[in-house]
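Appendix C: a fully annotated inverse folding record. The material below is reproduced so that readers can follow the format used throughout the book. The structure is listed first as tokens, followed by the designed sequence.
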């Protein structure tokens, strides 16, 4: 199953890669309540579905996160198109199951909506909140 949202932001892909990391995931998404452990591009988080291992990967024009121990193979990407400083970020979340309980589908839809709200809520806007720390490495 796939879930999408588009956020209006003012970040380049390199800015997104520098500022969206495991250490500050709760600042970007309200569905992620706590970072339990941070080892750079791997860590443990507590989110709406419980405690999970999380991996971060840099991809062209953004970042991908995955929960490798999740029974549904959950992963999501946040990408921006091109290098223009004003534009849109695409949030794309997938699971590896075709059918799910309606409550779980609603939680996935809320997860994507929380990412959209976090990106639009100030951190990705000029003069907005500052992300906690800078992530490395990055491309761009």
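Designed amino acids, in order:
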């Amino acid at each position: 199953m796939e879930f999408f949202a588009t956020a209006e932001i003012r970040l380049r892909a390199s800015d997104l890669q520098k500022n969206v990391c495991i250490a500050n995931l709760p600042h970007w998404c309200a569905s992620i309540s706590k970072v339990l452990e941070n080892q750079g591009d791997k860590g443990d988080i507590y989110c709406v579905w419980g405690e999970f291992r999380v991996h971060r990967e840099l991809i062209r024009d953004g970042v991908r996160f995955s929960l490798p121990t999740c029974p549904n193979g959950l992963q999501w990407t946040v990408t921006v198109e091109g290098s223009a400083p004003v534009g849109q970020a695409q949030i794309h979340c997938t699971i590896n199951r075709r059918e799910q309980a309606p409550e779980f589908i609603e939680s996935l839809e809320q997860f994507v909506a929380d990412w959209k709200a976090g990106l639009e809520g100030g951190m990705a806007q000029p003069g907005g909140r500052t992300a906690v720390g800078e992530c490395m490495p990055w491309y761009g």
